[in-house]
Design a protein that fits this description.
Elements lengths: L1 E5 L2 E10 L3 H9 L11 H25 L4 E8 L9 H14 L5 E4 L1
Parallel strand pairs: 2-3, 3-4
Antiparallel strand pairs: 1-2
């Protein structure tokens, strides 16, 4: 999505959005009361993994095509099911822990 040069380094950044779950979208359409948990579920992490895989593929394809040997970034914009962001600090910790368990060389994930 973005390419830049910082001094002699090439930088590439993919931007991905993780939206609210299908269950939450349906719930908001039917019932105004929201039941939120302080734990991200398996579905969230599946979406995260898919977005990471897609970003890596896109960055790799672009980098090879243009022979950039760039540093890669993935910027995640996350719409949590928690509309009021009461548990956002806990979600950020959970995502950070999850990403730390499976580091990806040459990819910096920002969320």
């Amino acid at each position: 999505d973005l390419a830049a040069q910082l001094m002699s380094s090439n930088l590439l950044c993919e931007v991905k959005t993780i939206n609210i779950s299908k269950i939450e979208a349906e719930r908001r359409g039917i019932h105004p009361l929201i039941r939120i948990t302080n734990q991200l579920d398996e579905g969230f992490f599946r979406k995260l993994d898919l977005d990471i895989e897609t970003a890596i593929r896109q960055l790799s394809d672009y980098d090879k095509k243009h022979n950039l040997n760039a540093k890669w970034f993935l910027y995640l914009f996350i719409n949590y099911d928690d509309f009021f962001k009461k548990f956002e600090h806990l979600y950020r910790d959970q995502i950070g822990t999850y990403l730390a368990q499976k580091p990806i060389p040459n990819l910096k994930v920002v969320f």
